[in-house]
Amino acid sequence: MREKVSAIVLNAINDFNETYGKQIPLELAEDIPLFGKQGVLDSLGLVSLVVSIEQTLEDELGVSLILADEKAVSQRTSPFRTAGTVIDYICKLMQEETQVCESPSH
Amino acid sequence: MREPVTLITGTRKGIGKYLAEHYIDKGHLVIGCSRTEPDWRVEGYEHFQADVADESAVKAMFSSIKKKYGRLDHLINNAGIASMNHFLLTPLSTVQNVLNTNVIGTFLFCREAAKLMQKSGYGRIVNFSTVAAPLKLEGEAIYAASKAAVITFTEVIARELAPFGITVNTIGPTPIETDLIRSVPEQKLQELIKRQAIPRYGNVEDVANVIDFFLKQESSFITGQTLFLGGV
């Protein structure tokens, strides 16, 4: 399941690049720095990417998740630091809801 | 030019039904919804049976819209309910119903619509308030408060959605002779109408005229505004 989530997140980043003419370095894969000091996204970009990931998760896996709720925002270390941390966070949420993800590797 | 896709809530009767027919006549692909099935059908119109405050029903509806149309150009948040009562006599269940439909429903539809619209970098959202809010109409505390919430909500999200090319505006109709005001005493309505600059009932054409203006492509520089009818 983590592989599927990883593919969804990386595809969403690819779509984001195409839709908004951005150049987030996909070759860094799960190490892509998304948000924060080293992040490539501004807050608006993060909103668009999160919406895109939520929609793809729903379309492809039939899972309805709210990724940027109070829980996510209030975490000491943001789950949106890198593509990898987003993937881990999604898996964690899915585990809590459905117990289907394998243990995160990060 | 492609046909605009226009979603209107509360299309079973009254203003919503009129707006659905109005935009079908203008060549839009019109999608509507209501809690119960309408007793009318028109070609070019698709109906969903959904409570606007039911998050899973609303999400399922938008999922269908996305699959079938792939986009959404306009959202008209017309669905609304009113309650006329002294607030000391108002049951909590009435408050919850009014807030659910008027505030939660508007929130859910704006959120899901904007998710679709932001992908194409274009969208027009029109929310519904009422002159009962600025006129502080006695006996309509919850209704007026819910519609005041819609105005503030619109003003804030207009700013949040502006970078995506989405405008969000509010129309504030005067009393219009529909089921919504059926339970309001005539004397009360006349008192309200007298406070308008133009003292008459509004009509559905007045409402459509304002919405036409907000939906126009040329209205791209107009957002976060509330336009009250009747000179209130």
TrEMBL record, chain A:
Q: Which InterPro entries match?
A: ACP-like_sf (IPR036736)
The entry's protein name is Acyl carrier protein
Source organism: Cohnella kolymensis
TrEMBL record, chain B:
The record's annotation in SMART domains points to: PKS_KR
Please give the superkingdom of this protein's source.
Bacteria
Q: Where are the transmembrane segments?
A: none
Q: Which Pfam families does its entry note? A: adh_short_C2
Q: Where is the Ketoreductase domain?
A: 4-174
The similarity comment for this entry is: Belongs to the short-chain dehydrogenases/reductases (SDR) family.
UniProt protein name: Oxidoreductase
